[in-house]
């Protein structure tokens, strides 16, 4: 652990249930989250991301391991003694309190003088542009407005870390996109570490400084969005984030890989025998048949406005997606046989 | 064809409403009848109300009824609130615990009443107001419990967590979030328990001692002695109180969460 | 406010459980015990008497002057009448409650709430007062009699103090117990199921019989129990509207604690009432389980 970490999670494990019915939801997880970082836990439901967030918030206690916030051990501390605040998935705005009472809730608990509370509540509401709704009740607000109030409430006590538990999932697509941008701006303005939980890979890539992809209670890969997207280390990560083609191939000695149909590619690897190659749909290119690595037949073409996506069938029957952004170029016709080139720098050799 | 429309149900329903309300209307109407022979109408008057107000036995019975209902409903509501807080979250024997809590609802009242009478006599507990308060508290518990429980059920579990996340400890979180949110349920439960106790006849009938009659017990013995216009008036008063309180409780139960 | 969740839960539940145990559980246990004792003493119970089933035997047989046991049907008749009255009341409540609940489920939200309030209010108002209202209506010079007399002079009609008066009073007292559970079922009923039944060729009446009623069965069962059980133990209605000739279980229990001052026999009758209630509940549970399978 370093002093510069906002959140430091060391070898944390957590199970629910007892005895034989126990389910392990977190398995030896360690993460360091830096100051002012926008860090995202990404994974499908049941991967343990929400449990990890709840452990940091203090709603659950870790079976093993240590959790520290800005160097201070909080592993056993109750939620009300932790300098973190949460934006809940359903916002959990207190329905019996007005917007300003909601935002001031924590400040009253911290026994801040009334005048100061008023000032801080005003600031916080201004930050999310909700000043004019101060006297309303949560039930009188739209989903997006409730979202902003929940943000203001969690930010008002100036936590060391803001925890966000799928806060955008209840919003419709358009609002979600707007709020994504706002969240990013808000983080810059507040200068606080954000720990964000989502199952939406696009959201994770858009917002985060770093992303941790989780599955089955473990962190599979951690890194900048671009790194995760372009150089996935696990088949699961590659598959979970964006569209990707996974091709069975054979690793040969001498940094050579043999593809279906016998073509060989030179690509550095340490594997031996059967491997999976991953390539994004936009990275493969259409070439002449005799210059190709793979041959494929066009099964279906979908027009997406900015690009064409061709669904291709490879010789072994597997499917290959090809994204063609150059709409002015030659377009293969349905049923025709085309050649594909797989640039070595966009290929990944994956472990399972 | 409207799938939800069933022939004759409307007519039968209106008939049932008439059946439910005509006796009440007749009773209330006759309470304003000036004629001494309770069922012959002469002209409207408030004489009987003036009489019951001046009647010392009715005054004392009314006082007993109010004290009894207030004590029993308060005790039952506190007990029920604590129990509802415990049963808000699932635990292995919750169904069993809830069955016990609802037991006074299911058991025939006369059985519990005579059993309690025998217990009190066997233990040497003085019959009267104290004995009635104890017995009423027991059968009021489910009436107070159910609205509170319904309210907790509708409450988002997350509010407690949110409060703790915002630095409120368990006690503060209860006081600032849980209690205010439950308040309509608590008031609804209290009101129903109060009405139930106020209207109870059987248990009080067996457990009231000399000089501690309640209004329903007084009404019963008056009816047995002969129907008089005073009974119409006092019955109307009891009806109006119940209707007001139940409407209040109904309204509280429907308050926005 | 510390300790494990289980301990905290126990602490919160203790007042309720103790109150009910002491004021319901203990008395009922005592009731069983006393039903085995003999009467006597100033308190109505001879605490020193040898426990026996004598009181239960007394329900059916009576000792003649010469010591032989002869059948005594007076209690059996009352028992049977109680069951019959309760059954008839339950049937009538179902007959009238079902259409009301169906109609309510089809109303708009505001109308439903109003109906719910209208059905609920009598349930919360004083049972004694409501039965008394019928007394005014049904008695010889009462409102009903006067109305009839006004239309065609036949002289005073005595409608009180018979089985019909009791059934009218009991139905009046407990009808809401039938309507509310039925309404709860119909409110949640997915009406598209009826459309589906029509679509599959069932005409209206068949669709109701094969889809609506089976789905409403839990409500019908619950409502029937909720009406049947309090009817069995009714005291106020037969006492006011039944007069001396149409006694029910509740009345003879009360008598043992009043004029007769035979507490052990009263306890025995109360145990009989409890047993009938249990039989009704178990029968219903078995019947419902069979339906589920």
TrEMBL record, chain A:
SUPFAM superfamilies with a match to the protein in the record: MOP-like, P-loop containing nucleoside triphosphate hydrolases
Superkingdom of the source species: Bacteria
Pfam families given in the database record: ABC_tran, TOBE_2
Catalysed reaction equations from the record: ATP + H2O + polyamine-[polyamine-binding protein]Side 1 = ADP + phosphate + polyamineSide 2 + [polyamine-binding protein]Side 1
GO molecular function, one term: ATP binding
Keywords: ATP-binding, Cell membrane, Membrane, Nucleotide-binding, Translocase, Transport
EC number(s) from the headed UniProt entry: 7.6.2.11
Protein role: Part of the ABC transporter complex PotABCD involved in spermidine/putrescine import. Responsible for energy coupling to the transport system.
Summary of subunit composition and partner proteins: The complex is composed of two ATP-binding proteins (PotA), two transmembrane proteins (PotB and PotC) and a solute-binding protein (PotD).
Stated name of the protein: Spermidine/putrescine import ATP-binding protein PotA
Species name: Albidovulum marisflavi
Lineage: Bacteria, Pseudomonadati, Pseudomonadota, Alphaproteobacteria, Rhodobacterales
Gene (UniProt): potA
TrEMBL record, chain B:
SUPFAM superfamilies in UniProt: MetI-like
Keyword annotations of the record: Cell inner membrane, Cell membrane, Membrane, Transmembrane, Transmembrane helix, Transport
Presence of keyword Membrane: yes
Transmembrane domains' residue ranges: 12-32, 66-88, 100-123, 129-148, 177-195, 233-252
Subcellular location: Cell inner membrane; Cell membrane
ABC transmembrane type-1 domain mapped to chain residues: 62-252
A Pfam family per the record: BPD_transp_1
Keyword hit for Membrane: yes
PANTHER family assigned to the protein according to its UniProt record, in alphabetical order: PUTRESCINE TRANSPORT SYSTEM PERMEASE PROTEIN POTI (PTHR43848), SPERMIDINE_PUTRESCINE TRANSPORT SYSTEM PERMEASE PROTEIN POTC (PTHR43848:SF5)
Family to which this protein belongs: Belongs to the binding-protein-dependent transport system permease family. CysTW subfamily.
Function: Required for the activity of the bacterial periplasmic transport system of putrescine and spermidine.
Name this polypeptide is given: Spermidine/putrescine transport system permease protein PotC
Organism: Albidovulum marisflavi
Lineage: Bacteria, Pseudomonadati, Pseudomonadota, Alphaproteobacteria, Rhodobacterales
UniProtKB/TrEMBL annotation, chain C:
SUPFAM superfamilies documented for this protein: MetI-like
Main localization of the protein described in the UniProt heading: membrane
UniProt xrefs under PROSITE patterns: ABC_TM1 (PS50928)
Membrane-traversing stretches: 12-34, 75-102, 114-137, 164-186, 211-241, 265-287
Membrane topology annotation: Multi-pass membrane protein
ABC transmembrane type-1 domain sequence ranges: 79-286
Signal peptide span: none
Keywords, alphabetical: Cell membrane, Membrane, Transmembrane, Transmembrane helix, Transport
Locations listed in the record: Cell membrane
CDD domains: TM_PBP2
Family: Belongs to the binding-protein-dependent transport system permease family. CysTW subfamily.
PANTHER family (alphabetical): INNER MEMBRANE ABC TRANSPORTER PERMEASE PROTEIN YDCU-RELATED, INNER MEMBRANE ABC TRANSPORTER PERMEASE PROTEIN YDCU-RELATED-RELATED
Descriptive protein name: ABC transporter permease
